Amino acid sequence: MQFSKSTGYALHALIHLARSERGQNVGIKELSALLGVSESYLSKIMSKLRQDGIVKAVTGVNGGYELARSADQITFLEVIQIIEGRQRLYDCFSMDEERHQLFFEAKSGDTELKDTPYTASNVWSKR
């Protein structure tokens, strides 16, 4: 799956916020200059992240954004779903046994990969 530029900008902005000193917010001008994207475009992305409780907006002269919770409590999957919307992470166009032996083994319980279809989602949502 290929993600939108918005998701990339969201992830990079969050990484920058996570690396900033605790309690120090980062202004939209600084973030947009760092990412090479317009302030208005990034503001829309940050607004989505704020609405879903990923970041907090600090108002005033020294305002900006900071993480609303610890970085280790934010998952890659959560950010993708906020920006991209809920969708399947992968599509399987063919279910013939020869091409998907692992899937069938997992489905029948013949392997340690019992929940194979959900592995990517589980890893991406792991904290």
What does this 3D model show about the protein?
This protein has 127 residues and is mostly helical. It has a domain at 5-83: Orthogonal Bundle (Arc Repressor Mutant, subunit A). The chain is built from 6 helices and 2 strands. The chain has helices at residues 5-19, 28-35, 39-51, 76-84, 101-108, 119-124, and strands at residues 55-58, 64-67. The protein has a two-stranded antiparallel sheet. Helix 1 packs across helix 3 (39-51) and helix 1 (5-19) packs across helix 4 (76-84). Mean pLDDT is 79; it is low at 110-119.
Tags for this model:
two-stranded antiparallel ribbon; 46% helix; 127 residues; 2 strands; Arc Repressor Mutant, subunit A
